[in-house]
Specification:
mainly alpha; 3% strand; elongated
């Protein structure tokens, strides 16, 4: 096993999935803030009071203590519909409910506003925005949708989007051969092979995610490169066989190897074909993504 493979597998096994323990907080006082419209205020009874339990994976807003945990909690509630469109989010109530400081609430709402989930306006306050305003390509929103009521639509849409992005990226990448990138892709396949042999699904998934992100980045198209985070998010979303990457097996590994071989040979057509085969390893995909037409 290469040094890179050993390092990556060791890191995956020892990864700490826990969240930071809260320290002393500048808590909100329980007095009501003057002049705040309480009509339609959200009910927090369904929210998880223990923020330490929140979070399945490390994503864009994760791994940052209370701030990241609150972003995830509120984001999940909005995306799931527990906090519907145009519902007011009163910072004082959020601070009291989750026992976090003013700074944590303020910064968390700013993150959600950047994702298009909420809007803050003078004399109106912070309100939940409709789905049409959300940044649906944001990795966090992709994950939250995938674990909410819209899970089936989200996985279908991700599958269709990957079918559009990745075969093209594979074809383009064949024309941008770089020895260091080629070696890195080969290393990822090696790591996936070792992980498959040891039944290490976590390491397999991490190497798989890096493989696909790197492939898109080396395609030489900046707009495609901008979408690499979507593919990474799609690979981290589990539940239901959507693509060949989601369940480690020999067939998936072989297709990754064929992509590397095609890139090394500068054969864009072969790389594209291998990627399409990889994305349709499972027959269930055929109900989601149509097979390529013969020309």
């Amino acid at each position: 096993m290469s040094t890179l493979a050993h390092t990556m597998m060791t890191a995956a096994r020892s990864a700490d999935s826990g969240l930071a323990t809260p320290g002393e907080l500048d808590r909100y006082p329980y007095a009501e803030a003057p002049g705040v419209d309480r009509v339609g205020s959200p009910v927090w009874d369904g929210a998880e009071p223990d923020l330490g339990r929140v979070g399945r994976r490390t994503a864009g807003s994760r791994g940052r203590g209370l701030h990241g945990q609150l972003v995830q909690q509120l984001g999940q509630m909005i995306v799931s519909g527990d906090l519907g469109a145009d519902r007011p989010l009163v910072p004082e109530e959020i601070g009291q409910r989750f026992e976090v400081s003013r700074t944590v609430v303020r910064e968390s709402l700013r993150v959600l506003e950047a994702k298009g989930l909420v809007s803050a306006r003078p004399n109106v306050g912070t309100r939940v925005r409709p789905v049409s305003d959300w940044n649906l390509l944001d990795p966090d929103i992709i994950e939250w949708r995938a674990y909410g009521p819209q899970r089936d639509d989200q996985r279908r849409e991700l599958s269709e989007l990957r079918w559009t992005i990745e075969p093209l990226a594979a074809r383009l990448a064949a024309g941008h051969g770089r020895d260091d990138v080629q070696q890195r892709l080969a290393d990822m396949v090696e790591i996936m092979g070792h992980a498959l042999g040891q039944g290490d699904a976590l390491t397999f998934a991490r190497a798989d995610s890096e493989f696909h992100s790197l492939l898109i980045q080396v395609a030489g198209n900046r707009m495609l490169e901008h979408l690499s985070g979507i593919v990474s998010a799609a690979l981290q979303v589990s539940g239901g066989p959507v693509t060949g990457c989601e369940r480690p097996n020999e067939t998936s590994l072989a297709h990754h190897g064929r992509i590397v071989d095609a890139l090394a040979a500068g054969d864009g057509a072969a790389a594209e074909t291998a990627m399409r085969q990889l994305l349709t390893v499972h027959p269930e995909v055929e109900r989601v993504v149509p097979a390529p037409r013969e020309h």
